[in-house]
Amino acid sequence: MKKTTKFSPEVRERAVRMVFEQRAEHSSQWSAIESIAGKIGCSAQTLCNWVRQFERDTGQRDGVSTAEAARIRELERENRELKKANEILRLASAYFAQAELDRRNK
Questions:
Q1: I need a labelling partner for 54 at 20 to 30 A (CA). Which of 11, 43, 77, 103 fits?
Q2: Other beta carbons less than 10 A from residue 22's beta carbon
Q3: Are the C-beta atoms of 37 and 30 separated by less than 8 Å?
Q4: d(C-alpha 51, C-alpha 57), whole Å
Q5: How far apart are CA 63 and CA 41, in angstroms?
Q6: Nearest 5°: phi and psi at 97?
Q7: Domain that holds residue 103
Q8: Are residues 1 and 50 in the same domain?
Q9: pTM
Q10: Tens digit of pLDDT for each residue in 31-58?
């Protein structure tokens, strides 16, 4: 289930770049974010989240990068599939073992 996004990756990238470019013209990063968010039509918190994620992706901030998060999601999905497969194999093995015991008793 994929989320639909109102803003394209190019718009997000440009907005984040504008925050860093205009940071010197404002008293704080938050005021730069508020100014730019109004111009592109998103909330200041949304733009702040984009900036924080960019900082994590470039190593300027601690946390999980976008690539690492995607890898974790993929590994978790694979892990779920393997657990399901193991459960199916365990049940099948038990079923056939019981069938073999029943056949020997007759």
A1: 77
A2: 15
A3: no
A4: 10
A5: 27
A6: -65, -40
A7: 66-106
A8: yes
A9: 0.70
A10: 999 999 999 999 999 999 999 999 999 9
